[in-house]
Amino acid sequence: MYVARAEWEEHYSDGKGFRRLGDKERRLLSEHVPAPGDGGRALEVGCGTGDLSVFLTSLGYGVDAVDYADSAIARARERHPDADRVRWICGDVERDDPVDLHPGGYDLVVLRLVVPFLTDRTSVLRGLGERLRPGGAVVVITPVAAHTPPERRGIALDEDEIRVLAGPWEQADRFDADQLAVLVLRGACPTGTGATAADRQRPGGR
Ligand SMILES: C[S@@+](CC[C@H](N)C(=O)[O-])C[C@H]1O[C@@H](n2cnc3c(N)ncnc32)[C@H](O)[C@@H]1O
Predict the structure, then answer these.
(1) Can you give the pTM of this predicted structure?
(2) Residue 157 three-state SS
């Protein structure tokens, strides 16, 4: 579903948000993607007002939180003034290549309520997969069409769309969090290094 960047800007400027992060989502994340250790690094794409990114710091991650709506990033900073383990980044993950992402890659990439709005899901997910460190996971949290009223169908994925999304990954586990699908995808990084080819060209890249 296409939503213009300006509409997201306005949504956050008007003080609105989205479905709050639920206990079941928190539990599933703690259980299935705990931080691997002190240096665990996560990326949240489309972070909105930042609650999930801050929750990830409680699991032990340092987090890069990206959203292309300035008003979302401004609200996230204001809402979480003490979140010193989150780096708030304003950027478009589909078009700013590369957004100022961590050159060493990520142990976890999370997209919550975002994937249905991406123009080219497959290529964004592939690009994010290339940024995974060995053993890392991409987690997609999304409404599903079966539980979404027809007039809001565009905010959700149907079973075919979920199958296509999960297809390239070696392991795709699916959980339910109060009618949101939580997909934990592993094993699609073609190089296994956790960094893109471009990163490896850069001084200090791995
Ligand atoms: C439905 S909101 C969900 C926000 C947040 N994840 C949550 O759960 O509350 C979708 C978010 O994705 C962001 N977004 C959509 N496309 C994006 C893109 N290409 N790059 C960065 N952010 C994007 C929007 O600005 C918006 O904040």
Answers:
(1) 0.92
(2) strand
Which 8-state DSSP code applies to residue 22?
P
Assigned fold of 5-201? Rossmann fold (3.40.50)
Pocket test for ligand 1, best of 114, 118, 180 (most atoms within 8 A of CB): 114
Counting beta carbons within 10 angstroms of the beta carbon of residue 36, is it exposed (0 to 12), middle (13 to 18) or buried (19 or more)?
middle
Q: Which atom of ligand 1 is nearest to the CA of 21?
A: 8
User: Token pair of 57, please?
Assistant: 């710091």
Answer yes or no: is pLDDT of 187 > 70: yes
| pLDDT number for residue 98 | 61
CA of 203 to the centre of ligand 1 (A): 31
Is residue 18 within 6 Å of ligand 1 at its C-beta? yes
Any idea what the Cα angle at residue 131 is, between residues 44 and 33, rounded to 5°? Answer: 55
Please check the confidence at residue 195 and state whether its pLDDT lies above 50: no
State the closest ligand 1 atom to the C-alpha of 5, by its place in the atom list counted from 1.
25
Percent of the chain with pLDDT over 90: 86
* Domain parsing of the chain, residue ranges: 5-201
Q: How far is the CA of 61 from the centre of ligand 1 (A)?
A: 20
What is the spatial distance between Cα 8 and Cα 19, in angstroms, rounded to a whole number?
A: 15
